[in-house]
Amino acid sequence: MAAIIGGATCAAAANVATKRHGRNIHPAALNASSMGIGAVLLLAMAVATGEGVKLPHDATSWMAVGYLSLVGSIVAFLIYFSLLKTWDSTTVSFFGVFTPAIALFLGAAVLGERLSPWSLAGSVLILAGVALTLVRPRRPALAS
Q1: Is 71 a residue whose pLDDT tops 60?
Q2: Alpha-carbon distance 107 to 101, whole Å?
Q3: Does 141 map to a domain?
Q4: Cβ atoms 91, 130 nearer than 8 A
Q5: Same structural domain, 62 and 119
Q6: Domain count across the chain
Q7: How many Å is the maximal CA-CA distance in the chain?
Q8: How many CB atoms lie within 10 A of CB 28?
């Protein structure tokens, strides 16, 4: 639980810092530094735990790695950092919240996976929570 809270805290702090201090930095530069740091840390952890470096052996696995690297990481984070420059950081932070719900519905639509009542209820709660957060309260009209 501490790791989850710590991860969310770090992500929020990174969004705020990027919004405040990264205005003049190109999204590709923000993306490259993040990906580089992540790659070095993952490599260090793989070696430290004895996992080592293992590369895929077949074309299908290489295609999956390529897709996840290019579309799922590089393109997605370029869009994310570009939006962070123009949208407020609270709105952009909701992308991480939508990911599980989108994955559920894509799994059902593309792979024919069955949606359980619990997953549907969770998705509705996610959407309702985001909607409640984004709705701006009406200001009372000023008396004339």
Answers
A1: yes
A2: 10
A3: no
A4: no
A5: no
A6: 2
A7: 75
A8: 13
